[in-house]
């Protein structure tokens, strides 16, 4: 099933790694499901509409996902601190309101820890700092962002913008407490996620994490490794990532710099090895977003229209062989939607990664369109929809009369419970895996769409309510899963 943790219910305005997440895992396990797919857990930025695909770090986790009730149990907060009479929306995340509420409490938890140094928490924090090697750069980056009023790193004073050693040492000393606080938040987030991840594993649920190919320009990754990206002398992107228009979406400029693959190769792919190794600690499988970019990638010159970009050669199979040499077999799913050619398909087969098949992209009036479920090969993953599509109900209500008639004929349906008809078709396909967004289990309309690519507002904020989680269709989903011979 597909559900990002922000979309879980909870009393503090946003989903978390706490009890509602465990209730969701329990429901999924009882329904016979074996996968929990999510978007990147990365720390989001308001300037990018809180998208987890343009985050402050490719390694760090979003601190708003920290469960406050767990901090009460650890003795870092009191119940009175987390009890709130504030009225948060049940069906949406109001990120600003949640930040205003949670950030002071996370600071208070840190200050209590700093003052009391509880032995067990201190030992776990120390072990975490030894475990991860991305933490120093990230914590310094976020402390500097706060120090300079949240402006982009390219606008910082030159000595620290260019990471001159003397300036780095000076700011580490000046901002020592803020840096430690940022590290502590990451410790709490990762520790809670690890516990939830283990909880899911014990119940037979594998987590499908998400690895975007690109990282945000204003991120710890680009600031700390500018030589790995196509930047100009000011540190701004010289070539910008994006995609040309296709049948489902307009041409897009993503705003993120593309890699200088020559420099990445010269560095023996070390940054990428570290990134994928960390993602494999956080999840059991990895969905590689924009898989085509490793075969060839679309890049747009600075100040050019998205349609003016062109394709460049990517690192290809050598990239994945380097990862395999270091990390072993890669349990990955290739997001191979869009401009896919035989070269990309061959790379996917060489990597042994199943591709994605989305029923909403099918031409239902065509006899053997590649997204019609009867055409799916075993090395694919079937989805009625994804985080980037409309809900099934919203999609269905926007179909033309002709397409709707073709859909009814293909599925042997009359429009009743169309969500379950598409789920059934995905489950009974030959795809090795099948995943459904939780919105479609409840037949929610377009208002529950999670993301509309190419738009800046109204995304990433849908939430499942507590009542919906209580009404999870356990029996029906388990019966369908058993009938499709997909029970583990």
- Structural class based on helices, strands and sheet pairing: alpha/beta
Uncertain segments: none
Number of DSSP strand runs: 11
Shape: globular
| Terminal residue distance | 15 Å
CATH architecture descriptor text: Alpha-Beta Barrel
Largest sheet composition:
4 strands, parallel
The CATH topology corresponds to TIM Barrel
CATH class bucket: Alpha Beta
What do the pLDDT scores average to?
Answer: 96
The domain tally reads: 1
Question: What is the overall number of helices?
Answer: 20
User: For the record, what is the CATH homologous superfamily label?
Assistant: Glycosidases
The Cα radius of gyration reads: 23 Å
Strand order of the largest sheet: 1-2-5-8
| Fraction in beta strands | 5-15%
Can you describe what's shown?
By secondary structure, the protein is an alpha/beta fold. The chain has one domain: Glycosidases (TIM Barrel), CATH 3.20.20. It is built from 20 helices and 11 strands. It has a 4-stranded parallel β-sheet with strand order 1-2-5-8, with helices on one face. A hairpin with an 8-residue loop joins strand 3 and strand 4. The two termini are 15 Å apart.
Summarize the structure.
By secondary structure, the chain is of the alpha/beta class. It has 20 helices and eleven strands.
Task: Write a concise keyword list for the protein shown above.
single chain; 488 residues; alpha/beta; TIM Barrel; four-stranded antiparallel β-sheet; 11 strands; 41% helix
